[in-house]
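General statements about sequence and structure are easier to judge against a single worked case. No coordinates are needed to read the tokens, only the vocabulary itself. The sequence in question and its structure tokens are set out directly beneath this paragraph.
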Amino acid sequence: AAMRVVNSNEELDRFLKTAAVVSRDYPVVISKYISGAKEVELDAIGRDGELVNYAIAEHVENAGVHSGDASLLLPAQKLF
């Protein structure tokens, strides 16, 4: 997967034109982030339709940093 952050329609157009493969099998996902927003994750595990355990994590970086590159706080500290 190729992830890019673009800041204008021109950058998006340029990225889409140079993408290796864009098709039904390899779709493009576009996400828009609110500048300066706090990102929070909820991960949960269930069994037989019942919640077994969960965790709420807070991203140190503002929204828009790729989850694989993000630093998380667990448990979340500042969700206000």
Notes: Helices lie at 9-18. The two ends are 34 Å apart (CA to CA). The beta strands are 40-47, 50-59, 72-73.
